[in-house]
Amino acid sequence: MELSKEDLKAITEKLDIILDKLKPGNDEPYQSITTENLNSAVANATLDFPKILINRQNPYLASGYADLHEIMIKIRPILGKNGLHLAQIKKLKDGATYLSTRLWHSSGEWIESRVLLNPSKNSIESYGSHLNSMKRFEAMDILNITVPEDPFDDDGEADMKDDNEIMEGGSKLKALYDKKKESFSVINAAQYRELMKELDDDQLLAENILDKLHLRSLRDLPESRFQPTIDRIRRIKKIRLSGKDA
């Protein structure tokens, strides 16, 4: 059966559309065609963003952070007043799961960021932790939100740690580096757990120790100060139990 000119034209048009989608650079766009209204609304909203404070502690990294809920409850009312809405959904593409973070404006304009979700373990706990962490990072990134004393704002130190060690090079420098590391070694995980057990959630006592030793975190307690610190905590607790002033 011979195809008519109309059928051939329709087939050609469909093939052109398919081939056009397969061309490099034709992935899903990251923003709407125009963003003027969105840009203006975001600029106004950022003027009213409150100071986001650290409200949680990571017990393993011994660092503070502002969790996703703390960030969102502070910025949602301001976004709403400026016709803005932040949406975060998961997308599946080529067998991989991505987190899509899209900032909408009431005009219909939008911008979007995408990041691969890749938890370290195949468990619901690991997945949930990784997902919420990425939601927090992406929300802060797309709205340019900063947190005072953000532990990840370290001038790239954590990211460059291995490279810095390689660049040091040479046996003499390596020896000095190892000696310095040994001299300033901090408490290990078991010692940290013992310290936390002795403190028993006594925030004032913990702050006192940090202040006396000029530390930002108890994870940074020098190993040489571990036993003296434990002894001091026990003395203070003993004095308190006896009814005397610490």
Descriptive account of the structure:
The chain has helices at 5-22, 36-46, 68-81, 124-143, 157-168, 171-183, 189-199, 203-213, 226-241; strands spanning 56-58, 63-65, 84-93, 96-105, 110-116. Mean pLDDT is 78; it is low at 168-183. It has 9 helices and 5 strands. Helix 7 runs parallel beside helix 9. It has a 3-stranded antiparallel beta sheet with strand order 3-4-5. It has a two-stranded antiparallel sheet with strand order 1-2. It has 2 domains: 28-143, no CATH class; 157-241, no CATH class. The protein has 246 residues and is of the alpha+beta class.
Number of domains: 2
What profile does the largest beta sheet have? 3 strands, antiparallel
The tally of helices reads 9
Strand order of the largest sheet: 3-4-5
What percent strand? 5-15%
Got a strand count? Answer: 5
By secondary-structure content and strand pairing, the structural class works out as alpha+beta
| Percent in helix | 40-55%
Measure the end-to-end span. 100 Å
The radius of gyration is: 27 Å
What string, H for helix and E for strand, traces the elements in order?
HHEEHEEEHHHHHH
Shape: elongated
Uncertain runs are 168-183
